[in-house]
Amino acid sequence: MPSPSHSSASHPVFAAADLGATSGRVMMGRVGREHLSLSEAHRFPNRPLRLSGGLHWDVQSLFRGVLDGLRAVSQSTDVLSVGVDSWAVDYGLLDADGHLLGNPYHYRDSRTESAVPEVWASVPPEELYRITGLQHLPFNTVFQLAAAGGSAQLAAARTLLLIPDLIVHWLTGSVGAEATNASTTGLFDARSGTWSAALLERLAINPSLLPPIRLPGEAAGTLLPQVAARTGLAGSTPVTTVASHDTASAVAAVPARTDRFGYISCGTWSLAGLELDAPVVTEASREANFTNERGIDGTYRFLRNIMGMWLLSETQRVWSARGLPTDLGRLLALAARARPFGALVDPGAPEFLPPGDMPARITAYCVRTGQQPPPDQGSMVRSIIESLALAHRAALFTAAELSGREIDVVHLVGGGSRNELLCQLTADATGLRVIAGPTEATALGNVLVQARAHGLVGDRSDMRRLVAGTQHLRHYQPCGSRRSWAEAAARVGLG
């Protein structure tokens, strides 16, 4: 990895609040013309709450974690700006006084199951896709709102804020909807980049519920007095709108040297696809369940959501509760020695979405599909990782076919880039070179958008050049039989 410049302490500092599905953290990014570094100021858990009304996020605890992280940063340095990113689709509702009406629902809550046909009765799925370009996921915001229809909470609501916008509101008092996250709701017009007035009318959603759209790089406001006092930061500290959907931030930090790249942002979910200049809203792309979500600079993230390392993390959680070994290094070593293509699953199968006994579900899937279930831990992990590599292959190949864009290289970023077996098997499955890293792509993208808004970084190519020149990257060349992977893909329906 290239060495950072010797005077890193002199570089301006940006605070990135990065909220994930299992934990949040505040990262401290230092940016110079040839320097880009990150350090973790504070990490805190994100533990959902199972209440009588369903599964919720403990968003007040998350905000407390953000404040604690900003205070940790302020004790060591001055901060030029703050940015916030998180997962998509989930939201908080504010009343007429601007107070939160209960903890936001978790996207894995089952309440939306009956809401999908209700929405489709008003707007058929083909038309919904033509307007929004959004892949069908039963927990998209549009379905969550339909599930909330008739509730006292929704009746009392005056403002809907997606999770990062809610955190920004609590930091600054301002109200807005950042575009990359708004584009995941199913209420956003993919072409115009605005809320779809036609959809809101037909779904009987009050347009005043949705705040004005903000673009990455715009100023969101400065810290409220009570926030400044709590964190030790200056009250004049600006909060900059970043690409607040974590995948959009991660894609902004892909260290690509060419336009002909595919990306996989791999964590709890794997988001695999291409960066395009225009949406692809054909019937073929709808049937393939591809989404067109906004990226920075008016780009589109043409991708498919894949159940990512969730299958492995849930498996480890169950094994831990049973007293079985869960050290990832040991499990991957066992998996590397296990028989290839012993048992394969479709990671997108609906039974793998909710929390629960993942090993039992994988076993049941294998029995149902006439396969011998994995006999031991190594075989189970091999099954998960090979299946995920096949899903990566299918998503990238289909994205290339639907868009007409060729792929020369695959960039795998996020926590999954640490998994050497996954990176190698993804290279083998696709027959393409895989460049793994940076691991902290989301936080880097958050920081870079802030730095660019403050004139310290140039255009998108310059941002990516800086990432490529300063971050640790690993290269994987494909090996093995492409025919074997093609046969395995056909076997599990991922051809």
Any overview of this molecule?
The protein is an alpha+beta fold and 495 residues long. It has two domains: 8-240, 2-Layer Sandwich (Nucleotidyltransferase, domain 5), CATH 3.30.420.40; 253-437 and 473-495, ATPase, nucleotide binding domain (Nucleotidyltransferase, domain 5). Helices cover 38% and strands 19% of the residues. It is built from 19 helices and 19 strands. The chain has helices spanning 59-74, 115-122, 125-132, 141-148, 152-156, 163-172, 179-182, 197-202, 225-231, 246-252, 283-287, 310-321, 328-337, 358-368, 377-403, 420-430, 441-453, 460-470, 482-491; strands at residues 13-19, 23-32, 35-45, 49-51, 54-56, 81-85, 91-94, 159-162, 177-178, 213-214, 219-222, 238-240, 261-266, 269-276, 291-294, 300-307, 409-413, 433-436, 474-476. The strands form six sheets. The chain has a seven-stranded mixed β-sheet with strand order 15-16-14-13-17-18-19, sandwiched between helices. The protein has a four-stranded mixed β-sheet with strand order 3-2-1-6, sandwiched between helices. It is globular and about 60 Å long. The two termini are 36 Å apart.
